[in-house]
């Protein structure tokens, strides 16, 4: 089965640097983009004890906390094996989701839980859930995602977090080494259809969120590289570049980008606290937040994009 990870979020409101809702017109923010993901009523299909996600082709347990208690990373794999032994839902291919798989169902419009509106899941706990993806730089840690506010970070494998199994075909990564096409100033990502500036940092690396948006807008005024509609990427677009098999930076080995900075602003506001926006940290690929008024991170401009990109799954073995 062919998988397509959507590049758009479901964020539908814009917020200024004080966290106050504002008009999206000409704001340069995520919600100003015309394409948004389907809500849960149109995206998910309930099939007994399972839910089919038509956006990714994955099957999720309808009970988002089927084991009731948190477990260590190794114990999480054991609990999922129990589902396979009992043929839960008539399936034997249940697994702990990869980071990208769990991130694929996260909402950036809702909190507590951070799931799409009208989703059909039950027993969702707004806390941390394990993924099967280990941290490349720190192999005693693995990635988890917060179902309350959508934070993506890593924790010690002997810590205890919740488990939400997934089933279905696992996406494969293209290893041809021809993912990126380079020109002097612009890089095309053939996997997503996005065009990125070769040098990610637009001006200083210590920008406020507003400065980051404005620095990208200036590229449009200058008709940079003969292209228009440059924008600050949303959190999913920026995350699409991440290769979790690598670190420092967490980018594919063949990437042609120059002057990689520590962290980059996203055009997506954290609705958990709208004075903050999402930030991608390049050392490991963490998705955290930054205070919009603090001059802390860099801007990386993007334009273009497909709505049905090819898979971008990490090559890192997930159960170490």
Description:
The protein is α+β, with helices and mostly antiparallel strands and 320 residues long. The chain folds into two domains: 40-167, Mannose-Binding Protein A, Chain A (Roll), CATH 3.10.100; 176-304, Mannose-Binding Protein A, Chain A (Roll). The protein is built from five helices and 16 strands. The strands form five sheets. The protein has a four-stranded antiparallel β-sheet with strand order 3-4-5-9. A four-stranded antiparallel β-sheet has the order 10-11-12-16, with no helix packed on it. The longest helix is centred in the N-terminal third of the chain and has 13 residues, at 73-85. Mean pLDDT is 90; it is low at 307-320.
A few lines on this structure:
By secondary structure, the protein is an alpha+beta fold. It is built from five helices and 16 strands.
CATH topology grouping of the largest domain: Mannose-Binding Protein A, Chain A
At CATH level 2, the architecture of the largest domain is Roll
Give the helix tally: 5
> How much is the radius of gyration in Å?
19 Å
Number of strands: 16
Can you write the helix and strand succession as a string?
EEHEEEHHEEEEEEEHHEEEE
CATH class of the largest domain: Alpha Beta
In whole angstroms, the N-to-C terminal distance is 26 Å
Which stretches of 5+ consecutive residues score pLDDT under 50? 307-320
List the strand order in the largest sheet.
3-4-5-9
Task: Identify the overall geometry.
Answer: globular
Please estimate the helix content: 10-25%
Structural class: alpha+beta
pLDDT average, as an integer?
Answer: 90
Q: Strand share of the residues?
A: 15-25%
């Amino acid at each position: 089965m062919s998988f397509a990870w959507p590049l758009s979020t479901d964020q539908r409101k814009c917020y200024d640097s004080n966290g106050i809702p504002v008009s999206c017109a000409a704001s340069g923010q995520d919600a100003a983009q015309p394409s948004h993901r389907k809500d849960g009523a149109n995206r998910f299909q309930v099939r007994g004890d399972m839910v089919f996600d038509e956006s990714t082709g994955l099957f999720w347990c309808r009970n988002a906390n089927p084991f009731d208690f948190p477990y260590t990373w190794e114990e999480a794999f054991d609990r999922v094996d129990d589902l396979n032994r009992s043929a839960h839902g008539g399936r034997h291919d249940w697994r702990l989701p990869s980071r990208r798989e769990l991130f694929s169902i996260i909402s950036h419009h809702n909190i507590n839980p951070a799931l799409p509106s009208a989703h059909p899941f039950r027993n969702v706990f707004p806390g941390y859930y394990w993924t099967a993806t280990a941290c490349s730089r720190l192999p005693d840690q693995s990635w988890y995602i917060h179902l309350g506010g959508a934070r993506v970070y890593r924790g010690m494998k002997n810590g205890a977090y919740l488990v939400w199994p997934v089933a279905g075909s696992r996406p494969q990564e293209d290893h041809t080494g021809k993912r990126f096409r380079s020109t002097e100033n612009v890089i095309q990502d053939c996997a997503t259809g996005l065009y990125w500036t070769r040098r990610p940092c637009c001006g200083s690396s210590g920008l406020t969120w507003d400065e980051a948006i404005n620095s990208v807008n200036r590229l449009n005024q200058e008709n940079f590289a003969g292209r228009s509609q440059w924008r600050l990427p949303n959190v999913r677009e920026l995350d699409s570049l991440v290769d979790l098999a690598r670190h420092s930076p967490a980018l594919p080995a063949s990437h042609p980008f120059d002057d990689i900075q520590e962290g980059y602003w996203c055009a997506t506001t954290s609705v958990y606290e709208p004075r903050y926006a999402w930030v991608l940290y390049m050392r490991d690929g963490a998705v955290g937040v930054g205070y919009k008024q603090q001059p802390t991170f860099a801007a990386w401009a993007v334009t273009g994009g497909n709505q049905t990109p090819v898979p971008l799954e990490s090559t890192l073995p997930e159960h170490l």
